[in-house]
Amino acid sequence: xxxxxxxxxxxxxxxxxxxxxxxxxxGGGVANAITxxxxxxxxxxxxxxxxxxxxxxxxxxxxxxxDTYTVYSMETAKEMSKKISLFADSNYGVGxxxxxxxxxxxxxxxxPNKVYISIYDCNQDTYYNDTIEVFSQDRRDxxxxxxxxxxxxxxxxxxNN
Length: 161
Description:
This protein has helices spanning 2-14, 29-35, 53-58, 63-69, 74-88, 139-159, and strands at 19-23, 44-49, 92-98, 114-121, 126-133.
């Protein structure tokens, strides 16, 4: 996977694009993967781990969206991706929220295995959204699957634009 992350950083550099992330269940894993690559400081503007609803809201996610659709929804992921892009003045914002095969008594969900991913392209005012379901009993394995999915989404977006 490190080759893909290296390729991602190089593509961002070549295209003079920047990225910011607002991650929940991945705990900053996407940002961490990017910062493991030399030159990441040229492309990663900002990263926030907003594990609680309170801090998603402090970073600009609409409380109404969370209340209406739940924190585990594509609507929340989209809010996260756009708000972090705008906050960091980055070309792309990544929002990740969901459950990694766990139960959250504060935020009940019908699907404890589903993660919502949104990438916001501020130059096109467009969202690229997807989901992934994870089933491992090992939380680290689930996080790694989500991170790989996000990296693949970003690579596809950059290679096709």
